[in-house]
Amino acid sequence: MIRFLKIFFGTVFTLLILIGSCVFYAFKIEPYRIASNQLYLNEKTSDFIKVVQFSDTHIKADFNYKNLDKVVNYINKQNPDVVVFTGDLYDNYAKYHDDEHIIKELQKINATYDKIAIWGNRDCGGGAARQYENIMQQSGFTVLKNENWYVTTDSDKKILFTGLDDSMLGNVYMPDSTKIYDSNYNILLIHEPDTADSFQEYPYDLVLSGHSHGGQVNIPFIPAINQKAISSTNLAKNYVSGMYELNSKTKIYVNTGIGTTHVSGRLGVVPEISIFHIYL
């Protein structure tokens, strides 16, 4: 009996240590890490443009400008030609914002040609709608809302970026489609990934989105937890993380974001910077 109790309490103690370690990692370590995904598209020539995407920073008290500085430095190390932000700058602007420091950090991002941003649902609510565009413009970003924007490379190649408004709290419509054919590569920027299904007839090569956070928690061998987290996120159920074939011509990539929302933890979904080498 004594031996049994020793084994029992030893097992319980080990499990508590394991659970405590996982909780500590999920709240204190993983949310402050950065992973990069290098993707190579249309590898047919030696001429390419490097597009770096980050998304869903969800700036708040426990993830502030000091944490954003690490993200900015990581982006700059990639030597990007174009930097794209796919929405959700603050988590809740009414509860926490620090525009002065955030602008100073975002201004540090360097790109050969341009920095482009679109709206996320968090940029439309909590008072953010009155400030978001001004913040991003002061930070050197071109803010698109149902607009086309062309970037021309030093080799005279043209890349189209179409940025749409937020699908949940904005007013989404496609800009004049007659203008999207005179380009070497077409990229559609949306915040909520499932919105892409509504624009499959347009000749885009790549769709970039965020919003899902990849569910924030993805424990191996327990998929139900990740599925439950994903099910609570609107317009991010069909495309959750990584690359998908939208149709025979178009790919969609879902960036799992930098910050956290609802719960300030991540487990198995490391904050992500996406680097696209797009051959022209």
TrEMBL record:
What region holds the Calcineurin-like phosphoesterase domain?
A: 49-214
Q: Which UniProt keywords apply?
A: Membrane, Transmembrane, Transmembrane helix
Q: Does the keyword Lyase feature in the UniProt annotation?
A: no
Name the record gives this protein:
Metallophosphoesterase
Q: Which SUPFAM superfamilies match?
A: Metallo-dependent phosphatases
Residues annotated as transmembrane: 7-27
Alphabetized InterPro entries for the sequence: Calcineurin-like_PHP, Metallo-depent_PP-like, Metallophosphoesterase_sf
Q: Which domain of life is it from?
A: Bacteria
